[in-house]
């Protein structure tokens, strides 16, 4: 077996992973997938010199960690401002239009999970950390590698930083709590606590056993790409292999207010928890001006 053959097997498994976890369109039966994965594990075990950082085998979780290293951010990861009623939203719109009268908006879910920052160099996942206080976070790279919707390698060899939200879906949360109760363990209070507790385990193998997911919602830094809008950045990230958040475009604040009222009811039908909506100016040049 040559390195080229092992790499071809890796690419096949990676394509199956993307179809299953990102496109929700499985291409093979679970049994066939498991057989391919076992074959890859055996080949890499016999040829450790050919193991790559983006191999699907690197998701299983390694040895327990002594603790989490600190990560200091060169650009602070700021928190959001709050709006509690239509008046707050109209005030926000008024301030925006005083400076950028032609601005348009995008609205996306405010996922109720744990914010993380992912770094890639030449297309390979090299570091992932919690947001922390916005200036200093915790290095949880080993745990983040176990989340199937985080690509270990991108479709292009780009260097970038993104921000996303790790969460646990409602159905997966219920199943996890049922398993914990059956094992006479305390159930988690809510999906957010379950996600945060699972991601901050010192044993990556325990994190790997938890049904964590992620939505990437912001492109923080990138080399060689100059997007003009937030929507353009999300399309770019999706093409690279990220699971991106769903957004809706608006030009009028009154339409956004109507949408917020609708989501007060519809949020209960989502398969994951949200604790609000996020309203962003779409045009990146307008953001800089503001």
Overview of this structure, please?
This protein has a four-stranded antiparallel beta sheet. It is globular. The protein has ten helices and nine strands. α1 packs antiparallel against α2. The protein is α+β, with helices and mostly antiparallel strands. The longest helix is centred in the N-terminal third of the chain and has 20 residues. The protein has two domains: 56 residues, Helix hairpin bin (Helix Hairpins), CATH 1.10.287; 220 residues, 2-Layer Sandwich (D-amino Acid Aminotransferase, Chain A, domain 1), CATH 3.30.470.30. The termini are far apart.
How would you summarize the topology of this molecule?
Blueprint: H1 3-22, H2 30-46, E1 70-72, H3 86-99, E2 105-111, E3 114-121, E4 124-130, E5 136-138, H4 141-144, E6 160-167, H5 170-182, H6 191-199, H7 204-208, E7 213-222, H8 230-240, E8 247-250, H9 253-266, E9 274-281, H10 284-289
Antiparallel strand pairs: 1-5, 2-8, 2-9, 3-4, 3-6, 6-7
Helix pairs in contact: 1-2
Would you report the number of β strands?
9
Instruction: Kindly provide the name of the CATH class of the largest domain.
Output: Alpha Beta
| CATH fold category name of the largest domain | D-amino Acid Aminotransferase, Chain A, domain 1
Tally of alpha and pi helices? 10
Overall number of structural domains? 2
Low-confidence stretches: none
